[in-house]
Amino acid sequence: MKIKTRLTELLGIEHPIMLAPMDIVADGRLAATVSAAGGFGLIGGGYGDRTWLTRELAAAGDARVGVGFITWSLAKQPDLLDLALERGPPAVMLSFGDVAPFAIPIKQAGALMVCQIQSVAQAVEAVEQGADIIVAQGGEAGGHGVSRGTFALVPAVCDAVGSVPVVAAGGVADGRSLAAALMLGADGVLAGTRFYATHEAAAVISAKERIVAAKGDDTIRSILFDIARKNVWPAPYTGRVLMNAFAERWREREAELMQRPDEVRRYEEARAADDFETAAVIAGEAVDMVCDIPSAGEVVERMARQASVLLDGATNRYKTG
Amino acid sequence: MKIKTRLTELLGIEHPIMLAPMDIVADGRLAATVSAAGGFGLIGGGYGDRTWLTRELAAAGDARVGVGFITWSLAKQPDLLDLALERGPPAVMLSFGDVAPFAIPIKQAGALMVCQIQSVAQAVEAVEQGADIIVAQGGEAGGHGVSRGTFALVPAVCDAVGSVPVVAAGGVADGRSLAAALMLGADGVLAGTRFYATHEAAAVISAKERIVAAKGDDTIRSILFDIARKNVWPAPYTGRVLMNAFAERWREREAELMQRPDEVRRYEEARAADDFETAAVIAGEAVDMVCDIPSAGEVVERMARQASVLLDGATNRYKTG
Question: Do B138 and A149 touch (CB under 8 A)?
Answer without folding.
Answer: yes
